[in-house]
């Protein structure tokens, strides 16, 4: 095993660690790890990401469910439309994207490169949210009445994002659950983990019809990520997640600009 692969497997623990601490965020590292460390093709990397994020989040959500931190009514309102959106996007939308996506004279924008540019843009937005590190205390649901219609529409949008780039979208889900459902931050984090789990698995199911998977690689990586979420859940009792999220946000920002630079340098 090369040093690069050892670094990649070690990064799997960080992915789970961040999901356990913050209810999301770590999943946006899986695609860059698969593409740039393990040199996996972009579309396959998004499929692998969905499985890893889904399995890791599912394990983490079990503890939250047992301890009754998950709001199941809010989960249903947000997640059901999201499930439909993520499945349809993985089953039909992503395969239907033309390759190349755009061509003008010698300039060719391949489908895989376009997805990575989009992914890097999402990473920058996520990093900005983490660096700002402001937790919304109240919003439309400050009166304690969840806005189920708005939650459902937001669920559709997050499902489309998850299906397209293979990230769970926790950095978007947690603020929505606080602002639109009136959930305390700890319940929003717990509910987000469950939504991410099912969202990711639904997207993964949409892929298995046309994808061959290397389980001997995928399962060990997922196992390390699951170890990370146990560590993150434990540390969450003692460590203020905001400070860690801010540092992680800067790291995500650096990775995003690295991705953009890497892709631009490959243009001929």
UniProtKB/TrEMBL annotation:
Record localization: Cell membrane; Membrane
UniProt entry keywords in alphabetical sequence: Cell membrane, Membrane, Transmembrane, Transmembrane helix
Cellular component terms per the entry's GO annotation: plasma membrane
Lipid bilayer topology: Multi-pass membrane protein
Pfam families: TauE (PF01925)
Keyword presence, Membrane: yes
TM regions (residue ranges): 12-37, 43-62, 74-94, 114-131, 151-179, 185-206, 213-235, 247-265
Domain of life (superkingdom): Bacteria
Family: Belongs to the 4-toluene sulfonate uptake permease (TSUP) (TC 2.A.102) family.
Protein name per Swiss-Prot or TrEMBL: Probable membrane transporter protein
Organism, scientific name: Spirosoma terrae
Origin organism lineage: Bacteria, Pseudomonadati, Bacteroidota, Cytophagia, Cytophagales
């Amino acid at each position: 095993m090369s040093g690069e692969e050892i670094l990649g497997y070690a990064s799997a623990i960080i992915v789970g660690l961040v999901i356990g601490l913050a209810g999301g965020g770590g999943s946006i590292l899986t695609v860059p790890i698969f593409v740039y460390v393990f040199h996996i093709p972009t579309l396959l990397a998004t499929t692998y990401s969905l499985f890893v994020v889904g399995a890791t989040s599912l394990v983490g959500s079990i503890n939250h469910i047992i301890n009754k931190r998950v709001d199941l009514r809010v989960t249903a309102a947000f997640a059901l439309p999201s499930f439909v959106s993520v499945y349809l996007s993985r089953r039909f939308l992503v395969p239907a994207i033309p390759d190349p996506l755009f061509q003008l004279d010698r300039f060719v924008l391949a489908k895989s490169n376009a997805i990575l540019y989009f992914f890097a843009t999402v990473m920058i937005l996520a990093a900005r949210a983490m660096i700002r590190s402001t937790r919304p205390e109240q919003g439309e649901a400050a009166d304690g009445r969840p806005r189920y219609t708005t939650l459902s529409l937001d669920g559709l949008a997050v499902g489309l994002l998850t299906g397209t780039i293979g990230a769970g979208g926790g950095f978007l889900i947690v603020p929505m659950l606080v602002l639109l459902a009136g959930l305390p931050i700890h319940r929003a984090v717990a509910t987000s983990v469950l939504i991410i789990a099912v969202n990711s698995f639904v997207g993964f199911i949409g892929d298995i019809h046309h994808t061959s998977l290397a389980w001997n690689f995928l399962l060990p990586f997922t196992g390390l990520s699951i170890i990370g979420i146990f560590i993150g859940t434990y540390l969450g009792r003692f460590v203020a997640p905001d400070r860690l999220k801010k540092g992680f946000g800067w790291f995500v920002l650096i990775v995003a600009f690295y991705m953009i630079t890497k892709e631009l340098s490959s243009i001929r």
